[in-house]
Amino acid sequence: MALSESGKRKIQALMRRAAKLGVTPASQMAQSAGAPAAPPPLEPVELARACVGVEADAGGARFWRICRTLGEVSSADSSLARQYAAVVRGARQRFDELEASAELCRVADGRPEDLLFMDVESCGLVGAVVFLVGLMHYADGQFHFEQYLARDYAEEPGILRAFAERLGAAGVLVTFNGKAFDMNLIRERSAFNLLEPLAACPPHLDLLHEARRRWRRRLPNCKLQTLERHLCGRHRVGDIPGAAIADAYHHYVLTADARRIADIVHHNLMDLLTMAELLCLILTGCEPEG
Predict the structure, then answer these.
(1) What is the pLDDT of residues 210-263, one digit of tens each?
(2) CATH superfamily label, 47-283
(3) What is the C-alpha to C-alpha distance for residues 285 and 261, in angstroms, rounded to an integer?
């Protein structure tokens, strides 16, 4: 509502009186007291700089593809790939001791190269947009990561098609809560985007089910990061909370500032790596201390 002329004159008179009394605006008072000025807004970070990758295409739908090896991410963790390969290759020797599920038997019968680890990031729960599909496999003595990112909501079909193509070559799919969530969400979003239904899924090992079978009475819960702390001895520092991921992606779509996208991509990568560690622990019959 616009001020009347008399109202404007009253405000101007109050400002002149404040000036005579030596009253200064709050921002000036803070600076005169030695408080630092507010920092200037950060410049947006481009996706190509935050998450090095290439534009890719799946069935005519574009997306951003990020590929790297574990050695490129952290050379300190390179021994994990060797441990994983040794454990999977030797798992068949412990077959009778494992009391294994059918899916775990498939892993024990296969090669390290046969497994495809998968984890998705979405904008919420049931029916929400999938914007990142993270994959990990073992080849040439190291872990390889492929992460398919939708740069906006319209690129979701591209990452879903790319995953469907990659899934067809997998011997065993490994997820954490993927039977109840990840794969169901991918099927729902594929139908929403009028994509071809997924071909027959390979044998699917859900590590959440295996973890609950072994450790639910020994640990506070069987969330992935709880297992990571208690069994892998790793505590994440600066990791983006799961509850903040959807808002961070929406912000990126609105602003093109990929600063938090880099955090999400790293979070996704760490989840995949933890899944491989948990599989090794399950195959070797490890129990938490205490």
Answers:
(1) 999 989 888 999 999 999 999 988 888 889 999 999 999 999 999 999 999 999
(2) Ribonuclease H-like superfamily/Ribonuclease H (3.30.420.10)
(3) 36
